């Protein structure tokens, strides 16, 4: 059983289903398009490798064909567009896009849902679980239903109900940043007028008081319906047009309004506030922000996990943001969740072949803690250095007796 139908949970379900392991995904939203879950997402070599291992070959081809290939350049400028730092990520020759792809989150989610129609249960929010003496897990949901399985994976995001019960000592804290996500349609003249030095894989413009603007294009090589007709007629994708993902961020302390007011603002109000906070910047970035579609703009609070030490393994484990949510400072949150899905699938396949289940889950958790919390720490450090993200609190120790012995 997987609690949560985000990218990580669905990728895990794809991998398990391909391996012949029975899986059910319980998603709290009433449907796949219930809420906006973001726009452009960078898929790095870890994410691409995971998707190649978990998806069917046809579905992976669709993913690669619908992702943009903006290259490997990640430059930083000051607010007058003077170059601060030029970075070129390593190219991995045997991966699509050299290992750096720009995917549309909704498109990727639709690909991950394909073939899981009978396995995903919507309106099914986990509230609690219980284990019996045989080791099986019964999950209880807000609608009064329940389900029983051999393993429960909490992939239910930053507000994970699974984590609250499984690891109450695992903290998630406010990182002290607020982001405003939006998109600029790249149609007609807008596509031609985008400066080439602002159209890399990810571009950061850092202004006074560490306010910042992140820019990343999503440019399709062919319409989605043509991709699926050519490669996988059974996969249905919503068509989309080229756009520039646009993320403005600031420290929470710089806002003159409460979070309650911020989250109640309209897109037009959020855009106007962003432009007011960019006074004195080079006119280029301000012009880009002024072209955002107001209906596309929404705010988020950046939160981060506090790394925890080892815990005693049982038949309930965690994946993605449910255990290692991180700031977007190094752009690997979703990729780390996809890596979790690949590693956990491999360990559960071993368990299905006879490896003791607890040993298999412990091997996953040991590996996941290392790379997952390394990414949390690196994201927090870079976010602090560049844009003033709060430093991570000290790691939390589990209650006595909750950690498994070193082995």
From TrEMBL:
InterPro entries: FAD-bd, FAD/NAD-bd_sf
Region (Disordered): 382-407
Domain FAD-binding positions: 308-378
Pfam families: FAD_binding_3
Keyword Cytoplasm (UniProt): no
Single GO MF descriptor: FAD binding
Keyword Flavoprotein: yes
Keyword set, alphabetical order: FAD, Flavoprotein, Monooxygenase, Oxidoreductase
Protein name: FAD-dependent monooxygenase
Lineage: Bacteria, Bacillati, Actinomycetota, Actinomycetes, Kitasatosporales
